[in-house]
């Protein structure tokens, strides 16, 4: 098996095909299993795993989407008008996709367990099942089913599930890292 | 009191309290239904057997199997590394550390290969389909059926397979068995891995971390 740095591999290919094609080729080879990547300095703790974007980028994008949705709701409540279309888009993603996505990530943390299409379909389906349950619980609390309690509950549920998913991913990563160290 | 019993009791008491309080004081029918639902769930959990009634018998049989094999290995000077074949056969080198190259005849106790002599044993890989998902197969056999551990995690890297067994139950295997085959959990896991992956498997290393066991299995080439 030939071993070389990813940067050198892409640089060599970029001379012939250009940077974009070289990066796309490398990504395709990785997805198809022809190329296997090994980090020489892997994270050594869960905290570091969370903070490294090369391992937990999905979690940061997830948190960014939830906070953006809450921010857009807050701003559009004050200044009715130009942010309403964006609120519709982010609100739809937050209600119809994100809760189910984090649940699917927590249940199936390994990439190879489900195809991206299966993940997308199950995320939408599970969101549709999860959000009414959140509403049912809220109905029996003093907060009731109102805009802010619903937005915060969906956000908090999704974020909690996303952290559980990140921890489960880390446990698999730790097992692979320890195997690599002894290998 | 174990965790499940505590959970059943908490659910039952909460359900009863919620149902009575909601019906007589709040006069709220949906909440009463929720309380009754919790009560029914706790009763169902209490009635459902947690494990197969034959699990302890199966474990006792496995322990006796380990003792018998340990005696045989002691007499025949068996040594690691052992090779697990997908047909449910285990080849243990006798007097050396060679790996087999030829497929053995299954009805022989000792098989002579070009690389040396091997002890031929049958492995406990019950109910595993060939070329099935390894983590699911290990979970089915080790956790659900035999209860030898609480959880399984698998990572595959080329020919190396890393298996983490969580909450491993101590079974007191004989020293010779541990020396040659590792623990019973490792032995069963390697048997299941060979059957599930449909290829020969050898145990490269076993590491204990608290109540977890990390197995390093190597996927080998098929025998001639």
Structure summary:
The complex is a heterodimer of chains A (183) and B (224). Chain A is mostly helical and 183 residues long. In chain A, 77% of the residues lie in helices and 0% in strands.
What global shape of chain B is seen?
elongated
Trace the largest sheet of chain B across and list its strands.
3-4-2-1-7-8-6-5
Number of domains of chain B: 2
Assembly type of the chains comes to: heterodimer
The portion of residues assigned to helices of chain B is 40-55%
Helical percentage of chain A: over 70%
SSE ordering of chain B: HHHEEEEHEEHHEE
- C-alpha termini separation of chain A: 15 Å
Overall pLDDT metric of chain B: 86
By secondary-structure content and strand pairing, the structural class of chain A works out as: mainly alpha
- Gap from first CA to last CA of chain B: 55 Å
Poorly predicted parts of chain A: none
For the largest interface, the chains and their residue counts are: A-B, 12 and 12 residues
Computed structural class of chain B = alpha+beta
User: How many β-strand runs of chain A?
Assistant: 0
Mean pLDDT of chain A: 90
User: Main β-sheet of chain A: number of strands, strand sense, barrel status?
Assistant: none
Count the strands of chain B? 8
Order of helices and strands of chain A: HHHHHHHH
The number of distinct helices of chain A, counting runs of at least 4 residues, comes to 8
Could you please describe the fold and organization of this structure?
The complex is a heterodimer of chains A (183) and B (224). Helices cover 77% and strands 0% of the residues of chain A. Chain A is mostly helical and 183 residues long. Chain B has 224 residues and is an alpha+beta fold. Chain B has two domains: 3-47; 50-224, no CATH class. Chain B has six helices and eight strands. Chain B has helices spanning 3-26, 29-47, 55-76, 134-145, 175-181, 184-197; strands at residues 83-85, 89-93, 110-113, 116-122, 151-157, 160-166, 201-209, 212-219. Chain B has an eight-stranded antiparallel beta sheet, covered by helices on one side. In chain B, strand 1 (83-85) and strand 2 (89-93) form a beta hairpin. In chain B, helix 3 (55-76) packs across helix 5 and helix 4 (134-145) packs antiparallel against helix 6 (184-197). Chain B is elongated. Chain B starts with a helix and ends in a 5-residue tail after the last strand.
């Amino acid at each position: 098996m030939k071993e070389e740095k990813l940067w050198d591999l892409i640089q060599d290919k970029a001379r012939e095909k250009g940077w974009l094609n070289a990066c796309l080729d490398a990504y395709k080879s990785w997805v198809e299993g022809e190329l296997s990547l090994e980090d020489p300095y892997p994270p050594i703790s869960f905290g570091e795993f969370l903070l490294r974007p090369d391992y937990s980028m999905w979690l940061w994008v997830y948190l960014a989407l939830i906070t953006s949705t809450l921010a857009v709701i807050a701003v559009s409540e004050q200044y009715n008008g130009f942010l309403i279309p964006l609120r519709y888009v982010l609100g739809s993603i937050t209600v119809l996709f994100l809760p189910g996505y984090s649940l699917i990530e927590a249940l199936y943390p390994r990439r190879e367990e489900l195809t991206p299409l299966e993940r997308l379909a199950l995320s939408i389906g599970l969101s549709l099942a999860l959000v009414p349950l959140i509403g049912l619980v809220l109905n029996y609390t003093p907060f009731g089913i109102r805009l802010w309690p619903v937005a915060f509950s969906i956000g908090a549920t999704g974020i909690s599930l996303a952290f559980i998913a990140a921890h489960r991913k880390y446990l698999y990563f730790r097992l692979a890292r320890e195997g690599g160290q002894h290998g | 009191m174990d965790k499940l019993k505590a959970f059943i009791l908490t659910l039952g008491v909460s359900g009863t309290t919620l149902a009575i309080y909601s019906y007589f004081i709040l006069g709220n029918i949906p909440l009463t239904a929720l309380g009754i639902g919790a009560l029914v769930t706790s009763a169902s959990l209490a009635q459902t057997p947690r494990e197969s009634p034959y699990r302890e018998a199966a474990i006792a049989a496995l322990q006796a199997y380990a003792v018998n094999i340990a005696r045989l290995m002691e007499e025949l000077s068996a040594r690691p590394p052992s090779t697990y074949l997908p047909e449910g056969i285990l080849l243990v080198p006798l007097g050396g550390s060679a790996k087999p190259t030829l497929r053995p005849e299954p009805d022989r106790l000792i098989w002579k290969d070009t690389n040396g002599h091997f002890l031929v044993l049958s492995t406990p890989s019950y109910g595993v389909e060939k070329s099935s998902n390894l983590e699911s197969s290990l979970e089915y056999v080790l956790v659900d059926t035999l209860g030898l551990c609480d959880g399984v995690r698998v990572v595959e890297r080329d020919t190396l397979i890393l298996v983490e067994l969580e909450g491993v139950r101590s079974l007191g295997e004989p020293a010779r068995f541990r020396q040659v085959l590792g623990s019973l959990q490792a032995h069963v896991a390697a048997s299941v891995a060979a059957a599930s992956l449909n290829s020969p498997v050898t145990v490269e290393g076993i590491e204990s971390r608290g109540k977890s066991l990390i197995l390093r299995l190597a996927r080998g080439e098929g025998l001639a």
